[in-house]
Amino acid sequence: MVELTDLPIDRRAVLDSVQSPLAGAVVSFDGVVRNHARGKKVTHLFYEAYDSMALLQLEAIRAEAIQRWKLHAASVVHRVGRMEIGESSVLIAVSASHRQDAFEACRYIIDAIKTRVPIWKKEHYLDGEIWIEEYGG
To answer: How far apart are CA 44 and CA 27, in angstroms?
Structure first.
């Protein structure tokens, strides 16, 4: 599963998508909108993506992780649009036979998303807003 959506992420569906009787480990990363950044109070976030390129890059990253760590499955869902405090902006789930592979693959995926995928984040504060230079997940 690789998806961009403007709807809330269905955590259960993402976790269910990586279930396998071969898996001894399922690891996930849930990037949640927090109420502060850069010493300011955040009111909400806005994500924008170059959809077609973002999906290609997300799929490439997913495929790399599956091959490198011999995963049974991997899923990545990223939100676009407005997100409120406490909402998931990105959810990654992976399954592997062993926990070390699952943990390493999950970390690789989020780190690669932050540097390779054309998704941009705007932070909204009580006193203004700013586009973040590098993607911050």
So the answer is: 27
Structure tokens, 129: 């807003």
pTM: 0.94
Number of C-beta neighbours around residue 76 at 10 A: 26
C-alpha distances in Å from residue 115, one per residue of 2, 45, 103: 17, 19, 19
Instruction: Please list the residues that pair with 122 across neighbouring strands.
Output: 46, 131
| DSSP string for residues in the chain | -EEEESSPP-HHHHHHTT--TT-SEEEEEEEE--SEETTEEEEEEEEEE-HHHHHHHHHHHHHHHHHHHT-SEEEEEEE-EEEETT-EEEEEEEEESSHHHHHHHHHHHHHHHHHHS-EEEEEEETTEEEE-SS---
CB within 8 Å of 69: residues ≥ 6 apart: 94, 96, 101, 102, 104, 105, 108
12-59 confidence digits (pLDDT tens): 999 999 999 999 999 999 999 999 999 999 999 999 999 999 999 999
